[in-house]
Specification:
There is one protein chain. This protein is mainly alpha-helical and 100 residues long. The protein has one domain: Tetratricopeptide repeat domain (Serine Threonine Protein Phosphatase 5, Tetratricopeptide repeat). The chain is 77% helix and 0% strand. The chain is built from 6 helices and no strands. Helix 1 packs antiparallel against helix 2.
């Protein structure tokens, strides 16, 4: 359903939510690669949506879980730089501290 909405209405007001929830669905299925790609599209296509910091944080967590520490650091640093006032930036700062 989310994929259909995105194909038919990529610029609708709810497209960013649909893209984010597609990532959530993939994550719930245990498909980290597809979830990461879906979250990356949220950030690329809808960088000003309130979902973008969460999507970027989740990408960092996926990288960290996969033991891709360099990628995790890069994503968490990007989050802190791009969305410094977000709650997710605080979480990213803590993860960066633990990765040091």
């Amino acid at each position: 359903a989310f994929s259909d909405l995105l194909r038919r209405f990529p610029d609708s007001d709810i497209a960013s939510d649909a893209q984010f929830h597609l990532g959530e669905a993939y994550a719930a299925e245990g498909n980290a690669s597809a979830a990461d790609s879906a979250y990356a599209r949220v950030i690329a296509r809808y960088p000003t949506t309130p979902r973008a910091p969460t999507a970027l944080y989740k990408r960092g967590v996926i990288a960290q879980t996969a033991r891709r520490t360099t990628a995790a650091r890069r994503l968490f640093n990007e989050l802190v730089k791009s969305y410094p006032e977000s709650d997710e930036a605080d979480l990213a700062r803590e993860r960066l501290r633990l990765l040091s």
